[in-house]
Amino acid sequence: MNLTLKIWRQKNAQSKGKMVDYKVTEISEHMSFLEMMDVLNEQLVNSGEEPIAFDHDCREGICGMCSMYINGEAHGPDRGITTCQLHMRMFKDGDTITIEPFRAKAFPVIKDLVVDRTSFERIQQAGGYISVNTSGNTQDANAIPISKHAADEAMDAATCIGCGACVATCKNSSAMLFVGAKISQYALLPQGQVEAVDRVNNMVAQMDLEGFGNCTNIGACEVECPKGISLENIARMNREFLKANVKG
Amino acid sequence: MSGFFKSSIGRKFTMALSAFFLMFFLLQHFAINFLSVLNPDAFNEVSHFMGTNPLIQYVLQPVLLFGVVYHFVMGFILEIKNRSSRVVKYAKNNGSANSTWMSRNMIYSGLFILIFLVIHFIDFWIPELNTKYVQGDMSGLLADGEGYRYYEELQHKFLPPWRIALYCLGFIFLALHLLHGFNSAFQSVGANNKYTKGLKGFGKAYAILVPLGFIVIALFHHFNH
Ligand code: HEM
Ligand code: SF4
Ligand code: FES
């Protein structure tokens, strides 16, 4: 198929950037979206132009790097997938596709479609961990009884790959689905209880400091999340935060 | 605790608390207004009680006023914060692919409700304050002393078509606001559990039936005086 692409080009973090039109031809419907981008970049390199910078790594929906806002949706029109898992058969011959970087004040553009998501890492560092003794006396995790239900829910929360699609999609650029998932994966398990108060307080404080917006329960994040992280995680974070503040 | 009220989640929580209070008030307001359709005498009695009872006048009324002001002021503060969290907007954004119109436009439905409330206050509340606390007439009686004035004043207010139109529009926006808001408030206070599905249906019913009820009352008095 033949396509027109409208792509955000921006030299570096300081420059202004603009949408630029490109044409690609003979794209197979079996290609992934990133492979289509590769074709375009090859074309650009061959004609002596600067290729389009975009993030990617695993190309199998695990790493969460492939941030692209395609035709007005994070990771494009399909559901439960990342951009690398998006197939060109979702588009028709002759389509015009708009491709933008994930947009949020806390995700500044580095170049073209590449954004800086280290704000997520700083939130994780503020409390998204448990402190365990690794001196050789580590307790076997299987020795701690955990209900199947809690283990399943914690695992569901832990499948968040930190891609940032929730922030990119959210009208408020809120990071609460991500932070809710990261808090929930510990809140549901006994190992997470010891540091629960500090965890939620510090992670929420860091989230606010980074300049993410405030959730208004629109639910777009849950729809666009490649891992199907549920809004229940945000409700759980709200409860954890409330509990932590009542306890003091 | 002061950090709590400055934090994103704390604000979300207090926003929901004010909204719960407003939704409870709305139901109570509807119940009393509906009396005016069923039984004018009972409506007069209850209105007089509500208008002169010290607990309601000096405790609940200020709480209500605070609730309304807090809700829309915090609504504006959050809206400004949220807008500033995305400096460069998307060239193409397909919001309807993943969320409802109501949820994305709370500030606009809220803004219209605010305009409605200002007019509503000028229509009913300020004249009440004037009669009771400026002129000092706590009797609740008509000028000629023949019975209570509340029902008569209500009927009189609903004569002009422009006011009926404005009220209907105001309640349509309220319905849109509540179609998202009712269930959103539960999520904000952390209530998302096995009852949430059932509550969604209840929320929809509340959001449509209560404003519709107010519209029916307004139309009733317009055509039936
Ligand atoms: C006076 C004008 C009003 C304005 C400007 C306004 C504005 C807003 C805004 C911007 C929100 C979204 C914030 C959020 O969801 O966190 C909101 C939420 C809400 N509003 Fe209003 N509103 C107004 C009046 C009302 C009234 C009269 C009611 C009910 C009778 C109401 C019920 C709600 C509910 C239930 C929510 C959801 C709360 C939550 O998500 O936690 N609002 N309002
Ligand atoms: S919650 Fe979903 S959308 Fe958000 S960062 Fe995690 S995986 Fe990505
Ligand atoms: S490149 Fe790793 S998830 Fe897409």
TrEMBL record, chain A:
Q: Where is the 4Fe-4S ferredoxin-type domain?
A: 151-181
GO terms classed as biological process: respiratory electron transport chain; tricarboxylic acid cycle
Which cofactor names does the annotation list? [2Fe-2S] cluster; [3Fe-4S] cluster; [4Fe-4S] cluster
One GO MF term attached to the UniProt entry: 4 iron, 4 sulfur cluster binding
- Identify the PROSITE patterns for this entry: 2FE2S_FER_1 (PS00197), 4FE4S_FER_2 (PS51379)
In the record, the note on similarity to other proteins reads:
Belongs to the succinate dehydrogenase/fumarate reductase iron-sulfur protein family.
Q: What is this protein called?
A: Succinate dehydrogenase / fumarate reductase iron-sulfur subunit
Organism of derivation:
Saonia flava
Lineage of the native species?
Answer: Bacteria, Pseudomonadati, Bacteroidota, Flavobacteriia, Flavobacteriales
From TrEMBL, chain B:
TM region(s), chain numbering: 55-78, 106-126, 164-182, 203-223
Recorded hits in SUPFAM superfamilies, A to Z, give:
Fumarate reductase respiratory complex transmembrane subunits
Q: A GO CC term?
A: membrane
- Top-level taxon of the source organism: Bacteria
Print the keywords alphabetically: Membrane, Transmembrane, Transmembrane helix
Q: What InterPro entries has UniProt attached to this entry?
A: Cytochrome_b-558, SQR/QFR_C/D
Q: What is this protein called?
A: Succinate dehydrogenase / fumarate reductase cytochrome b subunit
Name the species this protein comes from: Saonia flava
